[in-house]
Structure prediction request, 396 residues.
Amino acid sequence: MKLRKAYIFGAGKRGQRLFEFLNSAGTEILGFIDNSVSKQGAVVCGRTVYSLQDVAPMIKQKNIMVVVSPKEYGDILSELDSIEAEYALYDDITPPSMQYHKGNYDDERLLAGTTALDVKKLLWDSDKLPFIPENWDEYGFKVFSQGNEDGLIQYLINHVEIKNEVFVEFGVEDYSECNTKFLLLHNNWSGLCMDGSTEAMEKLRTKKLYWQHTIEAKAAFITKDNINQLIKDSGISGDIGLLSTDIDGVDYHVLEAIACISPRIIICEFNPVFGAKESVSVPYREDFSRTKAHFSNLYFGASLRAFVNLLKKKGYKLVCISSMRNNAFFVREDASNSIPEVSVEKSFRPAKFRESRNEKGELTFLSPEQQRALIGDMEVIDIESGRSKRIRDLQI
Prediction:
């Protein structure tokens, strides 16, 4: 089920602003509707302006949303009711102001993200559960995340009961691009973020959000032996809302070791170079460094299937993959309502980003096949058998 298409009722300035936001949020705008005869037939924002009578049959047959933009709705709602159209009002789906406000980088992105979320909520029909997306790419959006993870998280927390609005995220660098920042700023969750860089964590502590919200920045090189203590030392344990892992290394082994928390939602980065068929991970080394392990930066982490099998044993199911095709979303079985499980076969797609590097550290833009060939001699561990195998021998 894809996001629904929409007409915008009102082709004036408010309607044009609304077009910009809806269009940027991924809604397909079919055109404008306006009662002004002088506007009908004109082209606004690249879309034709129609009369309601022109598009009424299509609205009825296709179940298309109409978003009403004028300040004075007048008889417009009666007209829409008369053709049994489903509609929403401009003021119900936008933040208090849709004007551009000068401010710092975070404030500007937060405003844009809040607007995108309001639009997405309208299209999710979250008050009519269950409404389950089949194309998760269209249900996400990016504010502070690497890809569309911010939007996917918002969908999930609106459809999964969260009793303890606390997150843990590690591998955040200086927290400029991460999975929990929008949760912190928009939803006012609290949490713990960790990174191996002391400088990055010190930088985070100087930011305005650090005193405006409840968040702890902890510098630590994470291993499977210290992860539980690091979390517990921050006063976090038991049932929490979300865990996000991205340390570009022995992520599988660290996630396997976590026992002090039971997140409702887990996001973990997998290595798409390892393909979809086998359950494999890099061998555990306490001092693992992605760049030191192989100059290409391609040798790290675990396959999607490895994480699926691990988290299945812990009571989780895979529900979606991010648009970058490298972050997997899991929901705890007892908290998942009716969100369906997806298989590795249906959800895995080769990643399109090309981050391989040469021995000088320069990007080389290799294809997935070339990436696998470059690290073909490197060894991974088959999780099921415990045996080592070379990447060139993996079934892809």
